[in-house]
Amino acid sequence: MLRLPTRTLRSTFRSLSSYGKVDDKIVSLICNIVGPDNVTTSESARNLHGTDESFHPTRAPEAVVTPLSTSHVSEVMKICNSHRIPVIPFGTGTGFEGGVGALYGGVCMAMHKMTEIVEVNQSDFDATVRAGVTRHQLNDWIRADGLHFPIDPGAGASVCGMCSTSASGTNAVRYGTMRENVLNMEVVLADGTVIHTAGEGRRPKKTSCGYNLTNLFVGSEGTLGVITQATVRLHGIPEATAAAISSFDSVQNAVDTVVMILQCGLPLARIEFLNSDMISACNKFSNLQLKEAPTLFLEFIGSPSGVEEQAMLAEELCVGNGGENFSWATEHSEREQLWKARHNCWYAVKATYPGKHAYSTDVVVPVSHLPETVVFCHELAGEMGVPAPIVGHVGDGNFHCFLLSNQDDETETLRIKDFSRKLALKAQSFGGSCTGEHGIGLGKRELLIEEVGTGAFETMKIVKKSLDPLLIMNPGKVIDLDHLL
Amino acid sequence: MLRLPTRTLRSTFRSLSSYGKVDDKIVSLICNIVGPDNVTTSESARNLHGTDESFHPTRAPEAVVTPLSTSHVSEVMKICNSHRIPVIPFGTGTGFEGGVGALYGGVCMAMHKMTEIVEVNQSDFDATVRAGVTRHQLNDWIRADGLHFPIDPGAGASVCGMCSTSASGTNAVRYGTMRENVLNMEVVLADGTVIHTAGEGRRPKKTSCGYNLTNLFVGSEGTLGVITQATVRLHGIPEATAAAISSFDSVQNAVDTVVMILQCGLPLARIEFLNSDMISACNKFSNLQLKEAPTLFLEFIGSPSGVEEQAMLAEELCVGNGGENFSWATEHSEREQLWKARHNCWYAVKATYPGKHAYSTDVVVPVSHLPETVVFCHELAGEMGVPAPIVGHVGDGNFHCFLLSNQDDETETLRIKDFSRKLALKAQSFGGSCTGEHGIGLGKRELLIEEVGTGAFETMKIVKKSLDPLLIMNPGKVIDLDHLL
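YS: structure for the whole thing
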């Protein structure tokens, strides 16, 4: 296998003895760049920025910096690079895999003050935003132009944070994931160099111009550089939308319906699956009376007559597979009512188990293996005596099982890790992946190796070490530091 | 900027004095692996494999190897690696940028005997093919299952060759490019290591599992490794298809219609633009009577009533922008007749200028800049006194202008290079790219630097040098060797 001179790297690391500390001198240097209002060492700020939505414990950074510009980011990176201080980029903290924890101390680069929407090109269906802009802010900005940025991971994430984890969500089946929707990014590398992955100001819909750096940085979880700007595809708001739901007597029948709908080439915008446990939680939370059975939630877009035709064909396919209670609607308020259960899954589960911490698995399998994977998940939950509410983006074969624990109870935490690992290994055995959209972060570093194998893992290590030779970019995430030394 | 120790690399290179030669001993070593039928040094085979469809002169390799398996490729790579012999992967030789020329001698790895269709998963809409399988062979295999692999660059390219240049073509506006349609690849690295970019046997529709190696190798043009297998997305053959054409009095009106159609969210399968020169060539070649004016060719897919509705809406938009002679059809033979001009562009141009060699430009611009880019292209052609037949995948802002020359006339060749460069710089000035789907190869190495800028170019160099430290993978392509030493 190709290798960089690891011996040199290891001795470099050791000769520096460890990462540099963020002492008063460093804080003062950073303060000279970003100003006193934009750097803090307060405990509350540090704790807030060392925590995400996951069950991984808070790992507070030594300082939190809020740059106002790419130049700020670059200058701060140069200081950190010359003192070998870890840098952890922070978007909105809505990640699920502990990606923002400062395992080795260092500086959190919190991007929320870079809020400029740089450019919207209505005729070209693209927009360029700075790192602090959330998907909601972008959508509010462009709605009146008849455009939307459809990638919807649920949380109010920042667009650049979504780049970082290669996020997707409910409508990936229609619009793809961030991989397919990012045209260009501005990235500050470990040594402070500013690059534009597709060239400054470029926004072609497609290109074969050299190596695809854009998609190398999408999904790199802050371990190769700080994403300071992204240019993304926009889409026209569809003329008409129809929502539908139907319940089934088995997971198999529900998923068979999904496969048939996909095979018919119905232009779905979303197709979501909730199991009985999840419907039960949603009924309680939102005061609904849905049948507590495996249920599909569908959404169609197109022309008014087109969505009607699609909904009727979908009904036929649902009923043919034993689907019951098929109902559909095109009016906004009725659609919202139909999909209410789906929209509130996460909160419904958290409310059903008050005081518990929820963790979301994220496996993805080829759709043909979805029924047996969901059944395996149920059985695993039964064995372990834990509830298993499931919500799935079934058009992609991706589903989430929400696992509950007391964060302070080590036995429960270990059980969740064990559950998550067993489910991931099962998904991998079916040709799937341990993570569809949440990333590796802290929690799945061993699963990454299982999934891609030694050759690809060594290649990833080479990429990491060549672009971040001092290992200061979000160290310990994606690839364990031990594997890099 | 981050750098590998170039001094060491340069001295390594110089101490080896140059690349190794493919002498009798090497041929014999390779013969021991692949057998005598699968290695040749005959002049005709060498010349054939040093040529593509471009105007770049033939650069014959020293030997042509036709591996039968990944293990063959790996073992041959190990020999080449230990003797520092260049390796140039060869698919079908249908490239446009001189990607297969053996600039520094070496071995051509011709993949056409690895013809296995490994797996087709009908319910999951994916297929895995070895490197020799062409897109036509794959489509013939899966048609009866109601599936197709829609990426259509025109030529009968191999699927893995299409991976290599990030190919696309007429229906990228609907299905995306190879970037969006490759799920996994088996790649043999420079030292013979076999990797699976997403892990062996994995075929999830989406994944956030570590760095996106799949899209690092897609579009790498054989400079990072040999692609030996690809897993690609398939799509359902649509229930109904409608084709339409309409002519316009100006490029501006034609392109305005495209933008409006895109904004309406009409689910187009293809939208192609031909200018007057191209229509003229096609009329002569195919004995048609199309009006010699800027013309749009459209294709819609969906349900029977859906495509009818789309065609009618498209007609309304065309007529609203001054479109004439709008006609549409749904029957296969009528559709073929309507699209005949579009299908035969390349041959029509070659037939119009017998004895001339044709070169295809490949710029892509944001759609809003398409009219002025096409006008610029016309003006440039006028200044230079050359014809400028144009065909464009206008939904993506990508178009090709076919330039004719006598290959032996150096003045004509230089004029074409000058034309191509000026057009590319104009496209870049509009935020576009010098290549939408043909790649960099030999012809656009300087344009790559112009397009991505120093920072991204240095990053690409780091990636190249870290994965191919002896620079044996297709040397001189994408990045000039001088930049790597």
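YS: worth flagging: Residues 1-7 of chain B have pLDDT under 50 and may be disordered.
IM: good catch. Also The first helix of chain B runs from residue 6 to 15.
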